[in-house]
Amino acid sequence: MLQIPFLDWTLADIMLFFQDDWILAWTLILSGGLLAVWLLENITDPIPLLGTIFDGLVAIGTYLGFFVGILDIFVGYVVWTAQPGATIVAAVLILMGFSLVMRVLSKFPLALVFALAIAVFGAATIYGFLHPYIGSGLPVIGDIADFLTSGKGLLVIGFIIFCVAYVVGGLIIKLIQLIGKIFASVPVSVLVGLAAIGVGVIVLLNPSLLGLVAWT
């Protein structure tokens, strides 16, 4: 039977894997390349073949970058916890991850998606809580349970939760989305990507310059 060892790794194993200067450096360089590729796309636009190739790389990189961005944020957390003196490295990883993730998320109405998810989760939770009382015949409680767990009742509950979540969470999410759009913009993305590549090269050549010490 085919064995894939990394599928059996625990969170501690995964964190330990990234506690290595070589892996950390290439995570910075390759992830930075995904952001900096937008610069090459603009430079190669006038060249028919190269322009088409880099357009395709940007399109692929946008959606691949979403998952790479999540990984970068995780690695940034690993560095932050294991290397307290390497704040620059951790900050670059987290900013780069945020930029990559927001390149996809900024295309969606996050407040609407958030409110809808909360509404579905809330309605499902209430249904699960009231399920034992359905058809119980208990005075008041049984009638309420029967109504709230019906299709009409769940729609009412979901709508109320949706409205509250949209109003309360909407302002915060819109602020995050605004910041995300700034970091997802081409000029900022390219600058962050180039900075990440530069930091990655320094980690390869002289990690102590950035506060990295022997991993414990």
Give an overview of the whole structure.
This protein has 216 residues and is mainly α. The chain has one domain (12-210). 78% of the residues lie in helices and 0% in strands. It is built from 8 helices and no strands. It has helices at 11-17, 21-44, 48-82, 87-105, 110-130, 141-148, 151-184, 186-205. It is elongated, with a radius of gyration of 24 Å. The chain starts with 10 loop residues before the first helix and ends in an 11-residue tail after the last helix. The model has no long low-confidence stretch (mean pLDDT 78).
Overall geometry comes to elongated
- Report the oligomer: single chain
Rg, nearest Å: 24 Å
* Quantity of strands, as a count: 0
Order of helices and strands: HHHHHHHH
Beta-strand content bin: under 5%
Q: How would the blueprint of this fold be written?
A:
Elements: H1 11-17, H2 21-44, H3 48-82, H4 87-105, H5 110-130, H6 141-148, H7 151-184, H8 186-205
Helix pairs in contact: 2-3, 2-4, 2-8, 3-4, 4-7, 4-8, 5-7
In short:
With 216 residues, the protein is mostly helical. 78% of the residues lie in helices and 0% in strands.
What are the salient characteristics of this protein?
216 residues; mainly alpha; elongated
